[in-house]
Specification:
- The protein is built from ten helices and 17 strands.
- The protein has 385 residues and is of the alpha/beta class.
- It is 23% helix and 28% strand.
Length: 385
């Protein structure tokens, strides 16, 4: 891949991130690649994604150095510019970043030499009954212990808008869109619609719509399902609802989820990937749906999502099953799958193949950078077999 411009998003509070940023700048200088630091708080204010990527010279690769929060910042910028995003792992519990910090220059080499594949992740966008705004007094409150709020989302000028279909907003959610109560002693009352049809009216602390990528974030904490990040779906999850039906609902990617604040409800805050973007009053609504584009994430090795799930969530085996010992592999880790299984994903088998090929090509026993082998077309473009 030809890398002309590189945007760097760094967690400035982590010493390891700052040191790794120096390594990235040195790599960029050695390869004659323009490298621009993107810091949305550098002048005491916050800027829109469009302003940030324009200031960075429209980079075609965004590198994030930090945890999942840093990755989300970089992903929002990458999605706006249809750039690739490479997440370098410096977090503690996250699922979004894969490249260990010690391998950051190897990862950049792999991208530069086109030894990578691309994961395409579903993103969310939204329409609203009116433009979103955050009251000034609320912004002062929300700044306690955190940086300044993002500016109100801009209205998209490339989409039609009217009173019935609402205002299309420049919103990109990697994880989730959340409608949550503002008052501790008062829940929000919300009518929830799927594909325009009323599902139910909820009284709850919050209601959220998550992507498969975001299913292991707030939705998971609220009791929602774990969904493969490669899936194409929306996950609606109520948070502490006062009703018997408290289950999540998983919708198809072409089914929008609407949230209307009911007449006797208190005001509700709209958060996108944990960032407050506006406040709704009774009668207001938002419609959340899959964005037409996908986030393009650099993948250097086979993704073992379920292995990471077991590790990060400290999953343990049932006491009654421990006496049976560790289960043997279900299928072969060495032999290629039969033809009727060849279209399926087997990360462990792919990793074994990549390691074997790397050892065969390596010199003096050096461990090569793992690179993902060819994958079926449905895995690359996000479609289903």
């Amino acid at each position: 891949m030809t890398v002309n411009g590189l945007g760097l998003v760094v967690h400035g509070g982590r010493r390891e991130a700052v040191e790794a940023a120096g390594a990235v700048r040195a790599w960029a200088a050695a390869h004659d690649v323009r490298c621009t630091d993107i810091d949305v708080w550098h002048d005491g204010g916050r800027h829109s994604s469009g302003e940030e990527v324009a200031a960075a010279g429209d980079p075609d690769l965004i590198v994030t150095l930090g945890g999942d929060g840093t990755f989300l910042r970089g992903a929002r910028l990458a999605a706006h510019n249809d750039a690739l995003v490479l997440g370098v792992d410096l977090g503690r519990v996250g699922f979004l970043t894969d490249v260990p910090v010690r391998s950051v220059t190897d990862a950049l080499d792999a991208v530069y030499e086109n030894r990578f594949s691309v994961d395409r992740r579903l993103l969310l966008t939204m329409r609203s009954s009116r433009r979103l705004e955050v009251p000034a007094d609320m912004e002062d409150l929300m700044q306690y212990g955190r940086g300044p709020l993002l500016p109100p989302p801009q209205v998209r000028t490339d989409c039609e808008q009217d009173a019935e279909w609402g205002v299309p907003l420049h919103i990109t959610a990697v994880n989730d869109v959340v409608l949550e109560k503002l008052s501790r002693d008062r829940q929000v009352s919300v009518g929830v619609y799927i594909s325009g049809r009323l599902l139910a009216s909820y009284s709850a602390d919050a209601l959220l719509v998550a992507t498969p990528t975001g299913s292991t974030a707030y939705s998971f904490a609220a009791g929602g399902p774990v969904v493969s990040p490669c899936a194409e779906a929306l996950v609606f999850t109520p948070v502490a609802p006062h009703m018997a039906f408290d289950r999540s609902v998983v919708t198809a990617p072409d089914e929008a989820v609407g949230l209307r604040v009911l007449e006797r409800s208190g005001p509700a805050a709209v958060s996108v990937d944990g960032q407050v973007r506006g406040v709704l009053q009774p009668g207001d609504w938002i419609g959340v749906y899959a964005a037409p584009s996908r986030l393009r994430v650099v993948r250097l090795a086979p993704m073992d999502f379920y292995g990471r799930l077991r590790e990060r969530m400290n999953l343990t085996d049932a006491p009654a099953a421990v006496a049976d010992g560790t289960p043997a592999p279900l299928w072969s880790l060495t032999a290629p799958p039969p033809g009727d299984l060849d279209h399926l994903s087997f990360p462990l088998l792919a990793a074994q193949r990549a390691q074997a090929e790397g050892c065969a090509d390596g010199e003096d026993g050096a461990e090569p950078t793992p690179v993902e082998p060819a994958v079926p077309s449905h895995a690359r473009d996000g479609s289903r077999p």
